[in-house]
Amino acid sequence: MNRWILAVWVFLVCGFATANEQEEKSLFGKNSGESFEGKVVVLKVGEDSLVNTYAFKYWKKVLKRADEEKAKAVIFDLDTPGGLAFDTADLITQVLPEVKVKTIAFVNTDAISAGSMVAFGCDKIYMHPRGSIGATGLISGSGAEIEPVMRAKLESVFASYVKIVAKEKGRNADVMKAMMFKDKAYSFAGGKVVVEEGDLLTLTGDEAVLMHEGKPLLADGICEDLLAVLAKENLAQSDVVVAEPTGFEAFAYWVAKFSALLIAVGLMGAFLEMKTPGFGIFGGIAILAFTVFFLGNHVADNLAGYELAALFAVGLILVILEFLVIPGTFFAGAVGVVMMLSALLIAMVDRDSFEGFDTDKGLITLTSLIGWPIIFLAIGLAGSTLLVTLFMRFLPSVPLYNSLAVNAELKRGTGIEKGEGEESVLLGVEGVAETELRPVGRAKINGKLLEVVSDVGFIPAGAKIVVTSEDGMRIIVEEIKEA
Predict the structure, then answer these.
(1) Is residue 11 part of a domain?
(2) In this structure, is residue 409 part of a structural domain?
(3) pLDDT tens digit string along 351-409?
(4) How far apart are CA 434 and CA 179, in angstroms?
(5) Fewer beta carbons under 10 A from the terminal one: N or C of the chain?
C-alpha cells in the first residue's frame, strides 16, 4: 500500500513538474532553428490532419511565425478527405484573413469536404492534373446525416462563412455554395459544369480552371508538383522549408493521436499491479502511461492540467483502498472509478472548443465537444479489458514473471504455500467470507485473511466458501450452499 501511495505521489509531482510553470508558447517555441525569413513554408495536410485539433493549433503558430519572420509564402499541400468543419471554418475566416504572407493551396491530389474549405481560404489555388476538390457538405462527426433543424442552423452559419471568404479572396460564392449545399441547381462555364438540385459539386482539375464570368471557376492553374507551383508564383529560386512538429510539438501531436492506447496501457498496468504481489513493473508502466497522457494533452492545449491529474490520482487512491484495504465496501471503488474516468475524458477536451461552447447558439455542440474524447475513452477501456484478460491468462506461465515474483512475495500475497513442483494446498479448502465479495473481498482460510474472488455473483459476509481454483494471481472461491 505504501508503495502505491508513493507511486501516485511521484505521478503527481514529477509528471507535471515540467508543465506547471510553462506557457504553451514557450513550450512550443519554434519548430526548428531555421528561420522562415525569405523562404516558402510548406504545410502538409494529409489524410488525418483535419481530424486532429492539435494540427489546427500548430498551423496557426506556423502562420503567425511566417508573418513575423517575413516568409515569402505559405503553401498548403492538400491531400485529404476532410475533417472538422468548425475548426476549418475558424482557420479560413479568422486566421487566414489576418495573414499578410501570400497563402497558396495545392490540391495534391484531393481536397474533399473540409479540405476544400482550406483551399477556399487561401489567396491562390492550384490543382494537380488528377486532382479533385469539393463535396463540402456538412455531416455529423460520425458521418451520419444531421437532423433537419440543426442542419438548417448550421447551413445558415456556413453560408455566412461563404460570403466572408468570397469577399476576402474574390471567389465565386455560387461555386462554394454548390459544393456545400444541395438545395438548388447550378450551371457554370457556359453549361460545361452542371450541378443538379440534391447533388454536391466536385470539380476536377480541368473543370476548376474553366473560365466563368471572365475569370477561372475556382483554381488559378494546373501543376504537376510543388516545383511547378513555385514556378507559377515566381518563387522557383526561393528556399523551401516543410514545417513539421518537432520536440514538444511532435510529442503533443502523438499523445493527442494515441490517447486511447495510453489509457488502455495505463489502466491495464494499474489493475495488474494491484493483482500481482511483489511485481512492480506494471505500476511503473501505469505511472509512465498516465504521466505521458496528462502531460501530452496539457501541452496540446487540451483541458488536462494539475487539477485533472489530481482528480485522477485521488480516484486511483480510492480504488487502491477498495482493493487492498477495505475490499467489499464498493462505494470507495465506485467513486474512485468515476473520478478516474471523468478526469481522463475531460483531459482530452479541446480548450478552444470548450471556451467557444455555447448551448444557445448551438454551433459547437456537446457532441462535437466531447465526441472524440468519448470514443477514445471507450477504445481505451475496451483495450485495457482485452490486455488484462490476455495477461491474466498467460502471465503466470511466463518465466520472467516467475523470476521477478519471488516465492516469498507470492506466498505472502496469495496465501499459497507449496514446495517445488507441489500443488497448492488451498484447492478445496473451506473458509468464511470476512467481507462481502463483489466479486473481490477477503476471506479467512486456514486461519489466514486472504484476498479472494467470487467465482459467480455476490457472496455475503459470513457465508461459508470453498476454494475452487488459484493461478498464482487470484484465489477463486464459491459459496457453499446449505442443504
Answers:
(1) no
(2) no
(3) 877 876 665 444 566 777 788 899 999 999 999 999 988 887 776 666 555 555 444 34
(4) 69
(5) C
